[in-house]
Amino acid sequence: MTQATPTLLYIDDDHALARLVDRGMTRLGFKVVHAPDGSNGLDRLAQGGIDVIALDQYMPGLDGLETLERILAIPNAPPVVFVSAAQDSKIAVTALKAGAADYLVKDVHGEFIPLLQVAVDGALRQAAIRKARDDAEAEVHASRDRYAALAAEREVLLREVNHRVGNSLQIIASLLHLQANSSTEDDVKAALTNAMGRVAAVAQVHRRLYTSHDLKSVLLNQYLDALLEDLRRSAEGNRMSRLTLRCEPVEIDPDRAVAIGIIVNELVMNAVKYAYPDGAGPIHVDLKAQGDDLLLSIADDGVGLNVKTDPRSTGMGQRIVSAMAAKLEATVERDPAHAGTRIVLRFRRAGKPAAKPGCAAAS
User: Fold this and answer.
1) Which of 12, 48, 236, 339 is deepest in the core (most CB within 10 A)?
2) Which residues, in sequence order, are CB contacts of 35 under 8 Å at separation 6+?
């Protein structure tokens, strides 16, 4: 019930019966307001303060069904119990289908009043339950809207952060490139170039994030393609002119993409420096799926195991590859059957369902 003493609007053109209903329902704890016809009932309803309505069918002017239709067209209308002296089941069915909470047959002596109390109490309970349900649904919708707004704001902020981080990393890579070009010492130039490649590998991930609609994953084929293009632009002469990539779309989380990019950078740079002492040659980067695993290989057709260890090598690249492989929980193997050098990494494609499209095997 909406009040301590609920108010019943009784719409009936029988004034004598209305007085009986008034006395009986008042004794049962209700305040009763009488309206002699449908039009007057609608006017009284418009004034407010009505919790439930009992409505007769046969009245001058608007009949009960017409009045019921107009009542239920009002937003948040109180429940209506249809009351009629007619023993016509068609009227009952029509009233209930139209939206009446209950239906009962009245008599001229007021003996139906206890039944009216039961029907009115039930209608009020149903209305309270319906209101609680509607309020709960409205709160759920409001919560979803608030969550969606917060999620959208968070995505914008993340995109802005990735944009700023990516720009900062790109500036650092450009500065390292300028410094490498201005250096006259080969060891310094090589060290700065290697550092630039490592920074560029991280910067490319952030560039992919803030230019994508998905901040949770990176397409490796696009990422590696852009990374290798950066390496080609930074190389001297044509030493990376035959650098190739074979891969179809594979999604992976940004942290793992960074580790993969750094590994590719290190192994490609290693092939550039040591595989072809007399010039440039082919370097192949391949990524393919095998079940739930990903296989990444970097291969060249150079001198392979016949090469002597370069005295200038510090082993930094090997340590970085090992660290990044540990981050990926990857196995790292050298292919003994390959004529040059081929390094193969196998690792799990974490967090991605098996149905996702994988990389096609290199032909």
Assistant:
1) 12
2) 9, 10, 11, 41, 43, 44
Per-residue pLDDT tens over the stretch 285-343: 999 988 888 999 999 998 876 655 555 556 778 888 999 999 999 999 999 999 899 99
**CA distances, 152 to each of 138, 148, 213, 217, 350 (Å):** 21, 6, 11, 17, 26
Q: List CB contacts of 223: < 8 A, sequence separation 6 or more.
A: 204, 205, 208, 257, 261
pLDDT of amino acid 13: 93
Burial track 161-197 (b if 16+ CB lie within 10 A, e otherwise): ebeebbeebbebbeebbeebeeeeeeeebbbbbbbbb
* Pairwise CA distance, residues 295 & 30, whole Å: 79
| Angle 122-124-125 from CA coordinates, rounded to 5° | 65
Which residue, chain included where needed, has tokens 């632009």? 233
Rounded CA separation 151/140 (Å): 16
Q: What is the H or E stretch that residue 110 is in?
A: none
At 228, list the tokens. Answer: 């290798």
What would the pLDDT profile of 42-69 be if each residue is shown by its tens digit? 999 999 999 999 999 999 999 999 999 9
Rounded Cα–Cα distance for residues 206 and 218 (Å): 9
Residue at token pair 């009542």: 71
Q: Which residues contact 108 (CB under 8 A, 6 or more apart)?
A: 14, 16, 17, 85
- Rounded to the nearest 5 degrees, what angle is found at the Cα of 196, between the Cα atoms of 191 and 201? 130
Given a contact cutoff of 8 angstroms between Cβ atoms, the answer to whether 70 and 42 are in contact is yes
231 touches 197 (CB < 8 A) = yes
Cβ atoms within 10 A of the Cβ of 113, count?
20
Q: At what angle are helices 89-98 and 64-72 packed, to 10 degrees?
A: 10
